[in-house]
Design a protein that fits this description.
41% helix; 4-stranded antiparallel sheet; Rossmann fold; 10 helices; alpha/beta
C-alpha cells in the first residue's frame, strides 16, 4: 500500500482585491503522485512554478481547491490539524529564520510535544534528547540558543523539530540552499540515513539537480503551476520528454561537465 497518494490536487489563488475577488491569479494542478515508505519524491521547476505552494498544501498550511491527499488510505484534507502535524512535517528553506532566537533549542523542540502529545515533562525531555542525538547533536544542545549554532547545526535542529512527532512524511523546501558544499553533503547523508532507519517518505523541493539525481526515486517537473512531466528519476534525467525538462537536464549536465574540466 502507498504511504501517500495525491489525486487530482488543485489550487486556485484568487485576487484579494475586494472589487475583483473572482479573478484567479494562479492555478496549480492537477497534481498526481504516490509515494511508498522509504521513497523520495523531488519536485523541481523554476521560481514561481508552484513548488512551495504545493508543499504548503501537502502539510496543511493551505487548503486545496479540489482533489485528495490520502495517507495510507485516509483523506488527510478532512483530518484535524493535530493529526496532520503528526503525520506530515516540514523543513523550511531558511532554518535561521524559522528558529526563535529568544528560546533555547529545548523549548523550541518541546513546543510541538506540548501541543500535540500527552507526554509528561520528563518524557518530553527524554524525547528531545533522543531526537537531538538522532540528528547528530548532543543532549546539551537543548540549552543552546540559535546564535550559538553553525548553519549546519541550525539545519539539524530544523530536522529535529520535523522528526520530534514521529511523522510518516517530511516535506523539505530547499533545505540545503543556504549551506556550503561540505555541510550540504553531510546533511544529505544524514537525511538518507534517517530515511533508511525510520522508513520515512521524503518530498524534496530543490533547484539543485545534482542532489535531486542523487537522493530521489521519482521526480515531478513543474512550470507555471502545471506538472509537465513526472516519472522515475533515471528516466527523467536520461530520457526527458518535455522541452522544458530537457532544458533543465541539459543545463545541469553542462554544469557537471564544466566542473569536471
Amino acid at each position: 500500500m502507498d504511504l501517500i497518494n495525491v489525486h487530482n490536487l488543485c489550487f486556485q489563488e484568487k485576487n484579494k482585491n475586494l472589487f475583483k475577488k473572482d479573478d484567479i491569479t494562479f492555478n496549480l494542478g492537477p497534481v498526481n503522485f504516490n509515494l511508498k515508505s522509504g521513497e523520495t519524491l523531488a519536485i523541481v521547476g523554476e521560481n514561481g512554478s508552484g513548488k512551495s505552494l504545493l508543499a504548503k498544501i501537502l502539510v496543511g498550511l493551505e487548503p486545496p481547491s479540489s482533489g485528495n491527499i490520502l495517507l495510507r488510505g485516509r483523506d488527510i484534507c478532512k483530518s484535524a490539524l493535530k493529526q496532520k502535524c503528526h503525520d506530515i512535517r516540514m523543513i523550511f528553506q531558511n532554518s535561521n529564520e524559522s528558529l526563535n532566537p529568544g528560546l533555547t533549542l529545548g523549548s523550541i523542540l518541546e513546543e510541538p510535544l506540548r501541543l500535540n502529545t500527552q507526554l509528561s515533562q520528563l518524557e518530553r525531555t527524554q524525547k528531545i534528547e533522543e531526537t537531538l542525538r538522532q540528528v547528530g547533536l548532543m543532549d546539551e544542545h537543548k540549552f543552546f540558543y540559535r546564535h550559538m549554532l553553525s548553519d549546519g547545526q541550525r539545519q539539524r535542529v530544523a530536522l529535529a523539530r520535523a522528526l520530534i512527532l514521529n511523522p510518516k512524511i517530511i516535506v523539505a523546501d530547499e533545505p540545503f540552499a543556504a549551506l556550503d558544499p561540505s555541510v550540504r553533503s553531510q546533511t544529505v547523508n544524514l537525511l538518507m540515513r534517517l530515511q533508511r532507519e525510520l522508513g520515512l517518505g521524503f518530498i524534496f523541493i530543490s533547484h539543485n539537480l545534482g542532489i535531486v539525481r542523487h537522493i530521489s526515486d521519482k521526480v515531478i517537473v513543474m512550470q507555471e503551476g502545471n506538472v509537465i512531466e513526472s516519472g522515475k528519476t533515471d528516466v527523467i534525467f536520461n530520457w526527458p520528454n518535455d522541452p522544458y525538462t530537457k532544458k533543465l537536464v541539459d543545463a545541469h549536465q553542462a554544469l557537471v561537465n564544466s566542473q569536471d574540466n
